[in-house]
Amino acid sequence: VKWGYLLEGDRERVPLLHGNYSTCNNCLTKRYAYPVAIQGTRYSRRTGRKDTFNRMSTQATHSAHITVDDENLYLWGYKTNRIKMALTWIVTVLTLGTFRLLLYWYPKWWVKCTASECSLSTADCLLIRDAHMDVAFRPVLCMISDSVMQMGFPITGFQMTDVSTLRYFTFKKLIHLWYADEDRFISIDSLDVDIDFHQFHIMGEKGLSSVDVAKRLAVYGKNLIDINLKPLHVLLFREVVSPFYIFQLFSVAIWFSDHYEIYASVIVAMSLFSIAMDLYQTRKQERKLRSMVHSSAFVQVLRNGENPIKISSEELVPGDVILIPPNGCNMQCDAVLINGTVIVNESMLTGESVPVTKAALPDTDDESSIFSLDKHSRHTLFCGTQVLQTRYYAGKSVKAVVLRTAYTTLKGQLVRSIMYPKPVDLCFTRDLFKFIGFLGCIAFCGFSYTIVTMILRGASVREVIVRALDIVTVVVPPALPAAMSVGILASHMRLIRKDIYCISPSTINTCGAINVVCFDKTGTLTEDGLDFHSVCPVIHSNDKEPIFRHEFPSLNVKEMWNYRKLVEAVSTINGLLCGDPLDLILFKNTTWTLDETMNSRIEETARFDILAPPVVRSVLGACGCDREIELAILRQFTFSSSLQRMSVIVHDPEDESHDMTLYCKGAPEMISSLCKPSTVPVNYSNVVNDYAQHGYRLIAVAYKKLHISFPKSQRVENDLTLLGLVTMENRLKTHTVSVIRQLNKAHIRTVMVTGDNILTALSVARECGIIQPVKKAYIVECGNRDSPNSRIPLLLKQAASSSEDLLDDSSSVYDMESRSFIDPTYQLSVSGPTFEVISREYPELLLKFVTVCDVFARMSPEQKQMLVNKLQEVEYTVAMCGDGANDCAALKAAHAGISLSEAEASIAAPFTSRVPDIRCVPMIIREGRAALVTSFGIFKYMASCSLTQFISVILLYWLATNLTDFQFLFIDLFLVTTVAACFGYTPPCQKLAVSPPPTKLLSFASLLSVVGQLLIVFIFQLSIFIYTAAQPWFVPYSIPIGISLEDKRSMQGTAVFCLSSFQYLTLAVIYSRGPPYRKTIFSNTPICACLVILISICVWLTINPPYFVAKHMQYDPLPESGYRIFILVVALNYILCAYLYETGVIEYLVLTVREKWRKKHSVKTDADMLNKNEKILLSISSSPSWIPSATEGSSDHFGLYSFSNSSHIINCPLLQIVMCIA
């Protein structure tokens, strides 16, 4: 077979021999490339024949594969078959709707039963399977125009070709058009490719015509991100037709037909309440999401080459030319700036509040000037971002060409990720259905047994059917869904009392299995912004070595003026200073002022082409000077991440030499390398390391006199004179360190996922404990590609190690020794661009990176979501904690999203904390563990009670009798339901246990516990059943005349009922598990009160029931009081056996001894017992040598943590201001 890569953009096929990576490397960089077999021989297992195939030619096929937002969709074409459709509805009617219900649960069956396979070109419906293996059915719609000129199909760029028919389907809010020339569907979000720069400027001259707007509006639809509220009857239908509620409906129907109305009514009431609460939560979430994402405004647009007109933003289409107002606006679409400059707040995308400057797209028509959204984001205004201000050349408007609208925009992609998250597949849920299937098998056996025995007894047909179906409702408890929510509701109420709100209570159970927590940095782990700490100047002397002076808490230090000033990155917007928050803090500490033009009467928005340079002025007496200092900013060399520095050239008009001065700031190691060695103190590296290890962010500053004008920065940034160090601190929130320490002790992995700079993130991670002092830390970076066909090499740099005094004093020898043997001895950190390279060029290593990497910096919202998905792929249960709109996708994708904000992030997160710190995380995990253990206990309790009742019924069916209706009612309503309702009131333990509770319901310990307890129940019930019949006073049960089972009283039934009553209560105590996840059962006041009352009633009913009680309970009283006491003795023996079995066999032998032996012996030899992330850690935990082409750098000079603040601090987007340093 010859393999190649199919490029969806141009249908190019590149032949590729198997295993030859370099042949297709260029092809892999394409956005829509996927592997296909091009030519070869295939073997048919159906016919046994061989034939050849050639896919170099395009042919209409039944199936296809498309990629949308890096998600693979598989399509199959079908055409509605009227005969199949008619037969399907006939069968539906004959089965009273059961067949249609099955087809609703399985959409693939519906398509197979109502349509026939056909090519995609003729299909009127599609079967779609997404990357999560979810299957959906979508109709193919068709728009037909009377005239060819009235409708168009978008092709390359902004061009459209006239067509009379458009075929399309909609999936997850995106429209996919049928492209007849290539016989395939294409998504409308992939149409903005191959547009050169010049095309944008051509579009910007006159705008679209009215005809073009109508054509595009028909294809793209309205520019509106709107969440349609589903009708209540639709929500109700979707809720009611779930398998659990259908089974409840079946059970209730059986009970009502059997005159068991009271308990059936209770189940109906509980189900209606549960359905109502689910509907309320769903509608509440829909309304909240709709109110937060819906946005519309009036915009000025250029059309038909005429004057601008004002229209609703909903009428915008790709290709429209919009005018950006001078005083800013909220962007309603993605647009490319073609004129002027715009200052934008992109906090919705990045989480950082630093204003970003967007420049106009250059007007070039080179072959290489093809627009790419990823490469040219600095020219793109994104939907949902806030335009703070525009600046333009006099007489020219700030114009932008609409690129994407509605759900194809960046904001639309974020909303779609919230609406259609990756389905959460918890092992507990899967095992729950498997166990119910197992109960169904037992029910089938009981069903068969009942039919046989009832027929042999000569019962009527109706009696046989009712009794056989009733045994099914006994084995599979219909009250299970309501009972399973008890622990969740109790935990939910406790969280509300702690100001933690949950819009999806079912997620609480999932939180019990969390073993990884991802944290955003700014606003989550740290306060919003940095604080100035101090300045440490260097004192130079002609006859002495330069030395550091002591710290100064202010920037206005008299000695500093001898070393001039440094200019920072701020600008003015509407008269207010704006820029990097750090630079604003520094500037406020200088008491200087900024003037961006000498003529204050000129509007700010028109200062784009003013030639007068910005000026900074000091107040009189600042820095010990007797005059007002004024510096003109002549030139700036903006920050470069590769150079790790920025610089400015300033001029003092009062300077008699008329020289200029270069001021440079940047990473300490970079600045020191550019300084004259004679100006750098000998203890420079020690001072830098000392500051960095205490969590401070550093910038080094230096200067140099210039005698030339406007040189390149590389030619002048040398032979500098070091001025000193400025220290800043990004204060951690008060409870951050204690919470991280608590999670680490519980062996819950903590990961930082931030949009901030990697060096800043590393320092914060080290300070709060995410990067642990006992481990080596490395940064993974990208190198330069050696050749066009090679992969970008990865560089591994080791960070500075922590000193011993930074180790946590509370860490004990036990804590260190109790760590898992597969816990890695090192930690990695990567930035967003490196993460993208690894995803694209090292996909085989991606899962290893996400398993061992604990700091992810400069991550975009899409990358955050991808990281969460990959962590889930290696079988982690992930929680995400953040506070910004840029965290929404990750919050929704995580198993449990926790928002510290009530704004955008709360839309996507199931949990919202009104206390804006991470103390809520361990609270939620503790409540989740308590709820999960409660759910386990309730399920095992309900299943055991059902099987206990099943044993009682099967024994009595042998006599052609049964428990009476009031005995059933007493057991079902008072014993089982009342106790189950109190299960969840046991609060969680205050301390997080080292390991999470088990999530496998079908684990060896769980199954052994249930089976063993049921065996004990069966032995005791069978014993009392036989022993009662052997008593001299025993009167056998006789079938009433008429073969009626209305009179079901029997002595054996009374004995079994009395004994089983104690068995139900004993099972409640056994399965109400306490530490280490919950407190003891004695802390649960409601269940203790219930048990005391119910045990007293059971003793009373067994020893001496009053006549009226025995009459209503409908059982034959046992004549011998001594035998009734004997039943109590048997019950006590049962309680003792059941308790000893659970504590001695299950908890000690299985859970303690067996687990210790397994960890000591089995794990090293049996890898099948490990999950996916443990297997990966087992293979890479010792060292990072598994990273290919990685060159390890040392930190002998300063250590990367020493510069953790630098590149963030010096990221200066616009202009410069003076900073005095001593």
Description:
The chain is 39% helix and 21% strand. It is built from 37 helices and 49 strands. The chain folds into six domains: 1-57, no CATH class; 232-293; 303-419, Calcium-transporting ATPase, cytoplasmic transduction domain A, CATH 2.70.150; 427-498 and 924-1164, Calcium-transporting ATPase, transmembrane domain, CATH 1.20.1110.10; 516-527 and 733-914 and 1178-1203, HAD superfamily/HAD-like (Rossmann fold); 531-729, Calcium-transporting ATPase, cytoplasmic domain N, CATH 3.40.1110. The longest helix is centred in the C-terminal third of the chain and has 45 residues, at 1121-1165. It starts with a strand and ends with a strand. The strands form ten sheets. An eleven-stranded mixed beta sheet has the order 26-47-46-45-27-40-44-43-41-42-48, with helices on both faces. It is α+β, with helices and mostly antiparallel strands. Residues 5-34, 42-49, 53-59, 557-569, 598-611, 801-821 and 1191-1222 have low confidence and may be disordered.
Short description:
By secondary structure, the chain is an alpha+beta fold.
Instruction: Count every beta strand, where a strand is a DSSP E run of 2 or more residues.
Output: 49
Task: Give the domain tally.
Answer: 6
The CATH H-level superfamily of the largest domain is Calcium-transporting ATPase, transmembrane domain
Number of helices, counting only DSSP H or I runs of 4 residues or more? 37
Rounded to an integer in angstroms, the radius of gyration calculated over CA atoms is 37 Å
- Whole-Å distance between the termini? 72 Å
Q: What is the CATH class designation of the largest domain?
A: Mainly Alpha
Q: Pairing-aware structural class of the strands and helices?
A: alpha+beta
In what range is the share of β-strand residues?
A: 15-25%
- Choose one word for the global shape: globular
CATH overall fold name of the largest domain: Calcium-transporting ATPase, transmembrane domain
Mean of all residue-level pLDDT scores:
78
User: From the 3D coordinates, which CATH architecture of the largest domain would you assign?
Assistant: Up-down Bundle
Strand order of the largest sheet: 26-47-46-45-27-40-44-43-41-42-48
**Spans with pLDDT under 50 lasting ≥5 residues?**
5-34, 42-49, 53-59, 557-569, 598-611, 801-821, 1191-1222
Instruction: Describe the main β-sheet briefly.
Output: 11 strands, mixed
Q: What portion of residues is helical?
A: 25-40%
Family: Belongs to the cation transport ATPase (P-type) (TC 3.A.3) family. Type V subfamily.
Domain Cation-transporting P-type ATPase N-terminal: 200-255
EC number: 7.2.2.-
Pfam family, one: P5-ATPase
